[in-house]
Amino acid sequence: MMAESAGRAHPQRRVVVTGMGLLSPAGCDLDAYWRGITCGRSAIRAIRNFDTSEMPIHSGGEVDRSELLKAVPESAIGRTDRTALLGLIAARRALDDAALADAARNGARIGLLIGSGLGPCETVAESYALYNSRGWQGTRPTVVPRSMYNVIASHISMECHLVGGHHVVAAACASGALAMADACEWIQTGREDMVVTGGCDSPIIPSMFGAWINLRVLSKNPDPAKASRPFDRRRDGLVLAEGAGMLLFEEAQHALRRGARIYAEILGSGSSSDATHITKPSPEGQADAIRHALRITGLAAEEVDYINAHGTSTLLNDSTETRAIKLALGAHARRVGISSTKSVIGHSLGASGALELIATILAIRHQVMPPTVNLDEPDPECDLDYVPNVARPARIRAALSNSFAFGGSNAVLAVQAYEG
Asked: Is 347 tagged catalytic?
């Protein structure tokens, strides 16, 4: 039995997930992704999109070009910013999965809320390169529409014929999670009955990758498959990745009337701001976001069966998140199963929250906790149950998905098995 839900603003308008689509280093359809994040092996490889031979770090989580070619003509890859393209493909797959592609083309109102930490960074980098080599006259006029931050959502809305409201949320690594939190509220308040929501980012380009190397937060492990190792004593940094995850959020009665398949119910979300430091996380700020999610949704700490952690594999984040979970859940922190799917797919910035929520929903569907791979020597400061290396069958009814960002923006989504 759920705790008293008086904190919910509109409990009569329940929010369910009726479609999911994605592109990730571990798989680009739901079945492949589930196999990828539960098999106990990392999907991180040496970067192929550009030459890293002169760089000290070579590991990344990339989406294979062949996966893009399955979805769009080769010409579309060259003329569309990669972040926008990943988002478009994932959104189409979510609509198809929800059996709404034809409905959208026929004018059904569907909103769109997308999160992205870096936006169309490929286009911006290319435009600077052209300017430096050819001057202002060499820059293309298409740079203007292609580099607008909202091009990610506008491109999806036009290609998928989504006529509801749309915009892009930017909050670094919490972008996708906050976009989904807003989408949930859009439905709860009656603004929309259906919303395509999630996140996409493609930061693996030479200039951005170089900047991340210089920030000194990337893993230097020479073995790509061992580079991302959240909560392990030997972790030495995150692995940058690209990807996109999109979900169809829908008002429950609307979904039932059209006979939709329901994956899970989104209870709501919590958020907070560290208000302390732009790159140093705060355990108190993160704990406040978890508590806020519990308060808003009416969940008791003891009802949380699983947490998909932010789990970046950096020294500071993983110990901080451990402290935050203890602060928020008290004694129950030692009883809940926790895992980081970034150990398999790396950190895809604004896309990570959506890919991780999909992983959380699949965990509820399969009643299995994905493992934290490469967790061979647990850090004494990370002393909770982080489901090391092997997927674990478990009773999972209610779960949390954590997203904590540079800039101190924290978001936590609460999801449960749907019961009519």
From this structure: yes
Q: Is 173 a catalytic residue?
A: yes
**382 given a catalytic annotation:** no
pLDDT tens per residue, range 36-85: 999 999 999 999 999 999 999 999 999 999 999 999 999 888 889 999 99
Can you give the pTM of this predicted structure?
Answer: 0.95
Query: DSSP assignment, residue 251?
Result: E
d(C-alpha 90, C-alpha 85), whole Å = 9
Question: Which of 121, 173, 200, 382 is the catalytic position?
Answer: 173
Per-residue pLDDT tens over the stretch 327-353: 999 999 999 999 999 999 999 999 999
Q: Which of the residues 155, 166, 292, 347 is marked catalytic? A: 347
What would the two tokens of residue 49 be? 């999109």
- Of the candidates 298, 304, 308, the one whose C-alpha atom is nearest the C-alpha of residue 268 is 298
Q: Which residues of 377-386 are buried (b: 16+ CB within 10 A; e: fewer)?
A: ebbeebebbb
- Structural domain of 386: 269-416
CATH code where residue 328 lies: 3.40.47.10
Q: How far apart are CA 135 and CA 148, in angstroms?
A: 21
| Shared-domain flag, residues 236 and 273 | no
Both tokens assigned to 12? 């009569």
According to DSSP, the residues that pair with 306 across neighbouring strands are 337, 399
Last residue of a domain, one of 211, 235, 257: 257
